[in-house]
Design a protein that fits this description.
Length: 459
């Protein structure tokens, strides 16, 4: 069997390390996951034979079942599809089996686990393993790593000849500085742990992104460095720092959630009937009930109005909207917002969105709901809004009329993070309207933190 694989310098050091726990950190697309797949292949092939069979057993862990299937397993099968039989049960399992030149057979059991909560650690408790691969490890609770250290060094058992090697491998994009990975890799540095950091894919010089000649895995991208350059427009600088420059997040912390929002995002633009549409996005906090009116023109987003009602419910916001926009009843109203507004629909009750829709339709408006069934991660929503306020290239495509939208302007100008958090927001009257805004941008301009892809808005 021939595997055509050439490890880059950092990854080669990762393979050569004998540390019990090894971590590999790098930009997206730098070959980290492939390196871990090939590390399993190498260790399975080097396991000492017992009865002409080289046995090993690995747990391969990702934070969610969806990511496990779509990314981790797919990467494995890209390399070893013909040699691996996958059984999609609970958990997903596989057998990686092939002969090698000395007449022995490699039999490597694979157990694929989705573990994203501390309570999921129990899924590891009964396993006896040779190795564990924690894929995108920084997205997992540290308790998973702790339990993993006690589940390896257990297979094959002594009566089956024992093992030649046992340990844990991990890979990740750069996490925030408050993540356990940073603490272990940069501060505590435990004995028999070793961490490897790949070079950034690009460098920022004189406010311009340029290729990094030391970047790894560039030759395996069909478009070379353009794989990274094409990802920069429309991204917040924080995202580029982490996923392309391989910097730890929040390395220059600011308490402002939307630190790039400034007078440059102000506009005198008001509602324009010529555009023929209305975007209305909601947060359903009771005090105040907050929603914003937006329009898109030539690729730019304009916040042209807001509805802020103290101690109100959804139908009162709907009546207010109908009164303000009664001259535009033929317009299509696109509704976005908090997924909790769907509550009650499964039980035959009128949800907040049903009430809003019914009132608007009764008044003659056309309505199209664009509210997901569950809210995305807070940080993903924040990043989608940050990227429109000002992306990594300094482009701004999100503008606010501060005269008509005082809560929006105040919220984006002043909203703070809770002390000690990199994503949780202080609860103020102005926080809820900014939440409504990120619900909209996270639907129309979501940023996938792993692939870097941005969906294209219908506008």
């Amino acid at each position: 069997m021939i595997i055509n694989y050439k490890a880059a310098d950092t990854i080669s050091d990762f393979h050569l390390s004998t540390a019990f726990v090894r971590g590999l950190r790098g930009p997206i697309g730098s070959g980290k996951s492939v390196a871990c797949c090939l590390e399993i292949f190498g260790k399975a092939s080097q396991q000492k034979p017992f009865g002409n069979i080289r046995r090993s057993r690995w747990a391969i862990v990702r934070n969610t079942y969806g990511e496990l299937k779509v990314t981790t397993i797919r990467t494995w099968l890209d390399w070893f599809d013909g040699l691996t039989t996958i059984t999609y049960s609970h958990p997903i399992s596989g057998m990686f089996k092939f002969p090698i030149g000395d007449g022995t057979m490699v039999e490597c059991e694979l157990i694929f686990l989705a573990l994203d909560k501390p309570k999921d650690v129990k899924k590891l408790k009964s396993l006896e393993l040779t190795g564990v691969w924690l894929n995108e490890a920084s997205e997992l609770p540290e308790s998973i790593l702790r339990m993993a250290t006690g589940r390896v060094n257990r297979f094959p058992a002594k009566r089956q000849g024992g093992f030649s090697w046992s340990g844990i491998i991990m890979d990740t994009n750069s996490p925030d500085v408050d993540n356990w990975w940073y603490r272990l890799a940069e501060e505590e540095r435990p004995s028999n742990y070793e961490f490897f950091s790949q070079p950034p894919a690009l460098l920022l010089k004189n406010k311009e992104y340029v290729p990094n000649v030391d970047a790894e895995n560039i030759e395996n991208h069909p478009i070379g460095y353009d794989y990274y350059f094409k990802q920069i427009p429309g991204k917040p600088k924080e995202w580029v720092d982490v996923f392309i420059l391989n910097k730890y997040g929040n390395s220059e912390p600011t308490l402002r959630v939307y630190a790039d929002y400034s007078i440059e995002n102000h506009t005198s633009k008001i509602f324009s009937p010529d555009l023929g549409h209305i975007i209305w996005t909601h947060d359903f906090n009771f005090t105040p009930l907050s929603s914003a009116i937006l329009q898109v023109d030539d690729g730019n987003i304009y916040v042209v109005d807001e509805i802020i009602l103290k101690s109100a419910v959804a139908k009162q916001a709907a009546y207010e909207f109908c009164e303000r926009y009664k001259e535009y009843k033929s317009f299509m109203v696109y509704i976005y917002g908090d997924a909790s507004g769907h509550v009650g629909e499964k039980h035959g009750h009128a949800s907040d969105y049903m009430e809003i829709s019914n009132i608007l339709k009764k008044e003659g408006f056309r309505v199209r709901m664009k509210v997901p069934r569950s809210n995305g991660a807070i940080k993903d929503g924040q990043n989608s809004l940050r990227a429109k306020i000002c992306d990594a290239l300094g482009n701004r495509s999100f503008f606010v009329n501060p005269q008509r939208c005082k809560y929006v302007d105040r919220g984006l100008s002043t909203l703070q993070l809770k002390e000690g958090s990199t994503f949780q927001e202080e609860d103020t009257d102005f926080q809820h309207i900014t939440t409504a805004l990120r619900y909209y941008t996270n639907v129309e301009f979501p940023i996938n933190p792993r692939t870097g892809q941005i969906s294209q808005s219908r506008w």
